[in-house]
Design a protein that fits this description.
It is a single chain. The protein is α+β, with helices and mostly antiparallel strands and about 475 residues long. It has 3 domains: about 5-95, 2-Layer Sandwich (Uridine Diphospho-n-acetylenolpyruvylglucosamine Reductase, domain 2); about 105-215, Uridine Diphospho-n-acetylenolpyruvylglucosamine Reductase, domain 3; about 215-415, 3-Layer(aba) Sandwich (Vanillyl-alcohol Oxidase, Chain A, domain 3), CATH 3.40.462.20. Helices cover about 30% and strands about 20% of the residues. It has 14 helices and 20 strands. It has helices at about 10-20, 35-40, 60-75, 120-130, 145-150, 160, 190-195, 230-240, 280-295, 335-345, 395-410, 425-435, 435-450, 455-460, and strands spanning about 30, 55, 75-80, 95, 105, 110-115, 135, 170-175, 180-185, 205-210, 215, 215-225, 245-255, 270-275, 300, 305, 325-330, 355-360, 380-390, 415. The strands form 4 sheets. Strands 12, 13, 14, 15, 16, 17, 18, 19 and 20 form a 9-stranded antiparallel β-sheet that branches. It has a 5-stranded antiparallel β-sheet with strand order 5-6-10-8-9. Helix 1 packs antiparallel against helix 3 and helix 13 crosses helix 14. The longest helix has 15 residues, at about 395-410. The relative contact order is 0.14. Bound molecules: flavin-adenine dinucleotide (FAD). Flavin-adenine dinucleotide (FAD) binds near residues 43, 153, 200 and 316.
């Protein structure tokens, strides 16, 4: 442990003194207030957060004031945009909520956007669309753009357009020493390296400059079938053969019979194939045709869509739920692995996960960016992600079941994980996700820009 005691002085007195120092300067909220409850809420109800204070700075300078004052009072700092990726309880910490940092400017002549840290992808997509431009965003419009980018980001077009953080041109960021900086390939290049893939380890990002792509429309959507076995087998053979304009993923779904779930999909095991195609629509339809022939789809939403409808490809559920998720990477999805996957999660299995998603990675997402970054596991070609609703009554079974699936797929699993998909926090999370060389460099950069270890995100890399 190399952190000075000052950064661990999580006492009530320190928090009270910090609250007094912030009063009248930056909006800050104590537990029990509606603002504290709202700003520290998470979308996964199994991960409650209990920060000692929540600050909602209204400008980059206010973020710098908050981080500096927290450091002076020995109170550690975490950061949150939307709560979609919350993973730690944050006891005794100050949580910086970025919701007020909602500045957005699209610069069509440059093909870029300046995106405040409080913005969700939906706002960026809507603002860029009138210019025929689109950010390389994730599957869910409600996810925070900046939080997503700090974890790299594999969206519905990742095989074609690459890891989303490859498009970041600059970060405006407050480092743990309380200084507001602009990190680019040439200014503070180590920060620019580590903020792309290193999550919140090196700073509180207040905004990014992001390159957009010319993509007014897409050919995309999803097919849903009741023929789980036939579709999974056909998809696993087909996905590696598709051209680079195609990105695809698959989900074995057990959707409950609830309002909003289409009748043919509710209360049964189905499979969905997601397809995103950036080229000519007729060519995309020809590429997808073999999958459409496998089984008469129950639902087929694939067609030409405006880029503003990109969220319809995955149609992720929105809103807060208690869920347990798990993630692993596979080396290979050949016939034996597919057979095992179907034994583990197919209709005849004991699987209790509501979603078992397999994303085909590779393509442009495997290429190293022109300016190196901290993003791990670029060579991975398959990602498996499970989600199960974990109420007090179901949680133990859902967790056990995720372990059963991971054990069953172990012969095909490769080490590591994608930062955005790997649950957990702290050193165990960092050791699971990043190679030792990346962890060592993140720790070194963290010590330089955050000598007192104020940022909780950096501690995951510095505690050994
Ligand atoms: C429905 C759904 C769909 C998803 N789809 C995809 C997908 O297609 N591809 C993919 O890659 N991921 C996906 N994810 C995962 C998602 O990208 C991560 O959970 C991401 O961290 C969420 O960011 P957020 O800001 O919304 O969440 P938050 O909970 O607000 O933040 C999560 C973490 O991001 C970091 N962070 C957030 N804001 C900042 C900041 N201003 N400065 C520094 N660090 C910050 C911190 O480490 C924070 O703990 C999905 C998640 C959900 C819930």
């Amino acid at each position: 442990m190399d952190l000075p005691p000052r950064a661990d002085a999580r006492t009530d007195a320190a928090v009270a003194a910090l609250g007094a120092a912030l009063a009248g300067r930056v909006p800050a909220h104590v537990p029990g207030t509606p603002e504290h409850t709202a700003l520290s809420a998470t979308t996964n109800l199994t991960v409650p957060q209990r920060p000692a204070l929540v600050a909602a700075p209204r400008s980059p300078q206010e973020v710098a004031d908050v981080v500096r004052l927290a450091g002076e009072h020995g109170v550690p700092v975490a950061v949150q945009g939307t709560g979609h990726g919350a993973s730690a309880p944050l006891d005794g910490a100050l949580l910086v909520s970025t919701v007020e940092l909602d500045h957005l400017a699209v610069l069509p002549a440059r093909g870029t956007a300046h995106v405040g840290a409080g913005l969700r992808w939906s706002r960026v997509v809507e603002a860029a669309a009138p210019y025929g431009l689109m950010p390389v965003c994730g599957s869910a419009p409600s996810v925070g753009a900046v939080g997503y980018l700090t974890g790299g980001g594999h969206g519905p077009l990742a095989r074609t357009l690459g890891v989303s953080s490859d498009r970041v041109r600059a970060f405006d960021v407050v480092t743990g020493d309380g200084v507001l900086r602009r990190a680019t390939p040439t200014d503070d290049p180590d920060l620019f390296w580590g903020l792309r893939g290193g999550r919140g380890a090196l700073g509180v990002v207040v905004a990014v400059d992001l390159a957009l792509v010319d993509q007014p429309t897409l050919y995309g959507g999803s097919l849903w079938s009741a023929d789980v076995e036939g579709t999974v087998q056909a998809w696993a053979r087909w996905a590696p053969t598709v051209p680079p304009q195609a990105s695809t993923s698959l989900g074995v779904m057990r959707l409950p019979a609830l309002p909003g779930v289409p009748e043919p999909l509710a209360g049964r095991t189905t499979v969905t194939v997601r397809f995103g195609w950036t080229g000519d629509a007729d060519e995309g339809a020809a590429v997808l045709a073999p999958l459409r022939r496998v089984a008469a789809p129950l639902v087929d939403t694939v067609g030409v869509i405006p880029c503003t409808a990109i969220g319809s490809i995955h149609a992720d559920p929105d809103g807060a739920l208690p869920v347990h998720d798990s993630h692993l990477l596979l080396e290979d999805l050949g016939p034996e692995a597919v057979e095992r996957l179907l034994e583990l999660v197919g209709p005849a299995s004991s699987c209790v996960q509501n979603v078992v998603e397999v994303r085909h990675l590779g393509g442009a997402a495997s290429r190293q960016p022109a300016v190196p970054d901290a993003m791990p596991s670029r060579a991975a070609t398959w990602s498996v992600f499970t989600v199960g609703v974990a109420t007090p009554a179901t949680a133990a079974a859902v967790v056990d079941d995720a372990g059963r699936i991971a054990a069953g797929l172990a012969p095909w699993t490769r080490p590591g994980g994608l930062p955005n998909f790997t649950a957990g926090h702290g050193t165990a999370w960092a050791e699971r996700v990043y190679p030792a060389v990346t962890r060592a460099r993140l720790a070194e950069v963290s010590r330089r820009y955050d000598p007192d270890g104020v940022l909780l995100g950096g501690r995951a890399f510095r505690t050994r």
